[in-house]
Task: inverse folding
């Protein structure tokens, strides 16, 4: 079985994000880039199936420019067997649906039967792409999965059901699984893996190679646009309470009750 | 598509969830500017007519066995049917696991634009524009959707629940169903019956300073219980096994939006702030006066959680 992992690079979670200008968005020139943390869970889920010989190949799929190759290499170093970077002038400015159309076409073109994705990319925080890819392919989908068993023919997945409950869901293959924290403990790349990754080739494919209609992706097809970027709303200044422990506890309860009225 | 606004109203155990009322209140205000009517699609068993009191003129009700557990085919067919029946151009739902799943599928199926987790909505030139956090709340942007149907998910507690008015709604049953590729074969209820973190009005969280699962049960949970709050935790506390991972608040945990967030022995790392910075009132209890959490706190107590938390619990219980 060939498994696809949707891998996105994002600014490291401790990056400071500054607004470049309200119309263009954020300044990302000097952030440190990492694999999206949820995609690390997705990759680990795939690699575990490779170790267990349930999977024969683990293919990384990234929609992005040449600057994403270091993160793709990192994924190869951890054990992925192949990688395809999807890059075409026509892809620029895609919204989530556009990115999903590209990824769905690539999944089909690569002959993949099981896709692991992160539940959410921590840059745009959209949490849209995995379900969209599944819908476009007409495949089963289980998202926000934090426990998983895969057999040759299907998967049993535990997904968040709201209110802290979990549903246990069975889905036949082909399918897409959106991965949440708790699913596994991502491995690091070994030295040997890093050496081997240097020799692995990253295929670069455009619209023609994967058979996606260039008119259905990119800025001109995007339905969602983002403008008027700004900092988070400022918080009113706070107050450090004074006095001995008992006095401060009493002052806090009084403030919560009478000042801000939240209890 | 028309200029009506459709609200997805979810149910829980036969009751309409309060997020539905929150969204109806917002939809009513928006519709007053855009000139449309407010419709609701009620999913699952619940009092459909009660939605009229919050501004719904028509309720499309999808109920029955297909909605006892989340069934994506039935859920999306219900919402899709309601969009058509209500002639809606804007659809609002509370961000949560089922809506995230269903709305993304619908957006792809309908070729509709989707903006997730908006915290503001406003009418502008007859259209509805959203505003949403990105980069874990470090930046915000407006989102403009240009498809005939615009889908928005709203972060719970963004607007608050309005007062019920006197309106009434006409209710029509919605035929919806379908077999999903995904079959629910079991479900696990949460170990406690507190409100889910993402919808909680009050949260008490413990960090690394709590030092053990036993202390978490002794310090954090009783403090939370004293004000009907949901317990939360930092990643350090979760990784150390003091609390289960579904209680983690932050960038790789739950994003929460309560009116009160009490952080006990949490330093306020940027990834933790990512999950709770929009809380209306933040209380920090930390023995280090330089801890970054104090820069975001409405009220701070520089002190030892092993002293403060039990005193606070006692004070709140007697209050
Ligand atoms: C990719 C990534 C994702 C992450 N996601 C998350 C996430 O989702 N959520 C999250 O929380 N973190 C996340 N983190 C981790 C984050 O960077 C911090 O390490 C973590 O939040 C620290 O938790 P803490 O505040 O409990 O611990 P610490 O930073 O160790 O802080 C403990 C605090 O307790 C105080 N203290 C100690 N003893 C006492 C006492 N007796 N009384 C009072 N105060 C005391 C100390 O002064 C200190 O400020 C993530 C990190 C990465 C790299
Ligand atoms: N440009 C991309 N390239 C590859 N995978 C992506 C891309 N964008 C999103 N994904 C996948 O979809 C998941 C959810 O992303 P999002 O919907 O953008 O929050 C990510 O965790 C990735 O697995």
Result:
């Amino acid at each position: 079985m060939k498994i696809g992992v949707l891998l996105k690079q994002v600014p490291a979670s401790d990056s400071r994000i500054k607004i470049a200008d309200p119309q263009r968005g954020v300044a990302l020139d000097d952030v440190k880039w990492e694999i999206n943390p949820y995609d690390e869970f997705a990759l680990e889920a795939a690699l575990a199936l490779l170790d267990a010989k349930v999977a024969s190949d683990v293919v990384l799929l990234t929609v992005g420019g040449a600057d994403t190759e270091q993160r793709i290499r990192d994924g190869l170093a951890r054990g992925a067997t192949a990688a395809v970077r999807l890059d075409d002038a026509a892809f620029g400015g895609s919204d989530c649906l556009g990115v999903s159309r590209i990824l769905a076409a690539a999944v089909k073109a690569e002959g993949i039967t099981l896709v692991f994705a992160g539940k959410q990319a921590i840059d745009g925080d959209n949490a849209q792409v995995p379900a969209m890819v599944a819908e476009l392919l007409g495949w089963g989908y289980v998202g926000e999965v934090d426990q998983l068993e895969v057999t040759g023919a299907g998967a049993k997945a535990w997904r968040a059901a709201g209110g802290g409950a979990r549903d246990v869901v069975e889905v036949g293959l082909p399918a897409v699984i959106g991965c949440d924290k708790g699913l596994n403990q991502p491995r690091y790349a070994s030295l040997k893996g890093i050496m081997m990754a240097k020799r692995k080739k990253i295929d670069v494919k455009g619209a023609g190679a994967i058979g996606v209609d260039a008119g259905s992706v990119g800025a001109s097809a995007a339905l969602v646009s983002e403008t008027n970027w700004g900092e988070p709303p400022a918080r009113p200044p706070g107050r450090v309470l004074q006095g001995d422990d008992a006095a401060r506890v009493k002052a806090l309860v009084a403030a919560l009750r009478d000042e801000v009225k939240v209890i | 598509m028309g200029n009506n606004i459709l609200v997805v109203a979810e149910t829980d155990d036969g009751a309409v969830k309060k997020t539905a009322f929150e969204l109806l209140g917002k939809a009513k205000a928006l519709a007053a500017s855009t000139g449309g009517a407010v419709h609701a699609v009620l999913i699952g068993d619940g009092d459909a007519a009660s939605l009229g009191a919050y501004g719904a003129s028509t309720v499309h009700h999808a109920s029955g066995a297909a909605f006892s557990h989340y069934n994506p085919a039935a859920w999306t067919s219900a919402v899709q049917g309601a969009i058509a029946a209500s002639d809606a151009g804007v659809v609002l739902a509370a961000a949560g696991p089922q809506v995230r799943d269903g709305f993304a599928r619908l957006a792809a199926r309908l070729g509709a634009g989707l903006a997730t987790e908006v915290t503001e909505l406003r009418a502008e030139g007859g259209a509805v524009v959203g505003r949403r956090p990105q980069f874990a709340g470090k930046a915000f942007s407006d989102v403009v959707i240009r498809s005939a149907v615009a889908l928005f998910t709203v972060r719970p507690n963004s607007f608050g629940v309005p007062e019920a008015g006197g309106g009434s709604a006409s209710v029509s049953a919605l035929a919806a169903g379908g077999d999903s590729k995904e079959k629910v074969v079991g479900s696990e209820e949460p170990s406690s019956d507190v409100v889910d973190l993402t919808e909680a009005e009050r949260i008490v969280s413990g960090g690394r300073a709590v030092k053990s699962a036993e202390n978490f049960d002794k310090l954090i949970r009783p403090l939370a219980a004293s004000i009907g709050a949901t317990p939360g935790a930092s990643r350090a506390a979760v990784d150390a096994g003091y609390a289960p991972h579904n209680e983690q608040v932050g960038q790789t945990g739950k994003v929460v939006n309560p009116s009160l967030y009490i952080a006990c022995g949490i330093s306020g790392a940027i990834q933790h702030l990512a999950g709770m910075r929009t809380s209306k009132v933040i209380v920090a209890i930390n023995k280090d006066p330089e801890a970054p959490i104090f820069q975001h706190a409405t009220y701070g107590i520089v002190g030892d959680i092993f002293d403060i938390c039990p005193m606070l619990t006692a004070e709140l219980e007697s209050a």
Notes: Chain B has two domains: 4-173, 197-318. Chain B is about 25% helix and 30% strand.
